[in-house]
Design brief:
- By secondary structure, this protein is of the alpha+beta class.
- The chain folds into two domains: about 110 residues, Alpha-Beta Complex (DNA Primase, Chain A), CATH 3.90.580; about 210 residues, no CATH class.
- It contains eleven helices and 15 strands.
- A five-stranded antiparallel β-sheet has the order 1-2-3-4-5. It has a five-stranded antiparallel β-sheet with strand order 6-7-8-9-10. It has a five-stranded mixed β-sheet with strand order 11-13-12-14-15, sandwiched between helices.
- A hairpin with a 5-residue loop joins strand 8 and strand 9.
- It binds zinc ion (ZN).
- Zinc ion binds next to loops.
């Protein structure tokens, strides 16, 4: 029969015990992992490594795959083992019970009376990490904002940011503006008075930086946006969400097939083109014709070894970053992620 103190302890959910253990809980993510100690998902993904289930009853680490319930989290933190592995270890179970009862979440053990022998000391919870809040929005927030955006329809609408965005696209030499809408490469932010913006997006960006271009994770999920200035202003022409774009690239539909591991040789010509910035990306992504190259747009820190790993061996890669010191630096860094598997050529789009 399960002791009644365990039944009572099981009523306390994962976020509650995690906070009591001094761990950081933000937006369904927990850090650090009680099993492997990781503080973030990966080098380029700074969210907490441990996902908490929607009902708050379970957790799983995306780094080490350890999982469990709230009791297991406490067990791991206090004894290094899951609670369910501690059957018969009376000292460890007493430490866990002591921890719960000290918070009023279960009845104290009879042995905590002043005359009983002292319990093993409970180690203090680890101090909360001093990392800043993870700057990646939740994928669901990204997709719901995207779904609320307007299409960039050159045949028109009188909404000012849509008209400004269409004018911006039409003003770019060689950019086939109708294809931006056909390929769904970019959309226009909705009026924040009509659609609530997520907390990570400043409402003052509308309508100035209204053109939202999705950025993609190495496995082809929408992870964020680049925002392009469309009012003709010359300062801060492009903004990454929350000031960073690390680990997220622009990708045309053919390039997305590559990231998702489903390249289609009927539409992909077997080559990759890497260019820098939103205008170059859209210019090359909208060149008519099939089959066509997979076009990626990159920025500082956007392209990662994980993205490179999605490019099949032997693919010819044209690197068309800007012809300036920074663009040349990107070109060298990009080639280094692909050599020697894929021959890289420097081109000047
Ligand atoms: Zn872990």
């Amino acid at each position: 029969m399960t002791p009644s103190w365990l039944d009572a302890a099981r009523q306390v959910n994962v976020p509650t015990v995690a906070a009591a253990l001094g761990r950081k809980v933000a937006r369904g993510r927990l850090s650090p992992c009680p099993a492997c100690g990781a503080e973030k998902v990966g080098h380029d993904d700074r969210r907490g490594p441990v996902g908490v289930t929607l009902d708050g009853k379970g957790w799983r680490c995306h780094r080490c795959q350890a999982s469990g319930d709230a009791l297991d989290l406490v067990g791991r933190a206090l004894t290094g083992k899951r609670t369910r592995e501690l059957a018969g270890d009376h000292a460890a179970l007493a430490a866990i019970r002591d921890w719960y009862s000290a918070r009023g979440w279960c009845a104290p053990a009879p042995s905590t009376s002043p005359h009983a022998r002292p319990l093993r000391r409970v180690p203090p919870p680890p101090p909360p990490p001093s990392e800043p809040e993870p700057s990646y929005p939740e994928p669901g927030e990204v997709v719901s904002l995207w779904e609320a955006c307007s299409r960039v329809d050159p045949t028109g609408t009188d909404l000012p940011p849509v008209a400004l965005s269409v004018a911006f696209l039409l003003s770019r030499r060689h950019l086939w503006a109708p294809a931006v809408a056909d390929l769904d490469l970019a959309r226009v932010l909705p009026n924040p008075e009509a659609h609530p913006f997520p907390h990570w997006l400043p409402t003052r960006w509308w309508p100035t930086w209204a053109l939202a271009v999705p950025t993609w994770t190495p496995d082809g999920r929408m992870g964020g946006f680049r925002f392009r200035r469309v009012d003709g202003g010359r300062k801060r022409k492009e903004l990454p969400h929350l000031g960073r774009s690390g680990g997220l690239v622009l990708a045309c539909p053919v390039a997305l097939d590559l990231l998702r591991g489903t390249p289609d040789r009927a539409v992909w010509d077997g080559t990759v083109l890497l260019v820098e910035g939103v205008p170059d990306f859209m210019t090359w992504a909208t060149v008519p014709g099939v089959p066509r190259p997979a076009v990626f747009g990159i920025f500082q820190g956007a392209w990662t070894a994980e993205h490179a790993a999605r490019i099949p061996d032997g693919t010819r890669v044209a690197v068309g970053t800007h012809n300036d010191p920074q663009g040349n630096h990107y070109a060298d860094a990009l080639a280094a992620t692909l050599a020697p598997r894929c021959p890289c050529f420097r081109v000047r789009p």
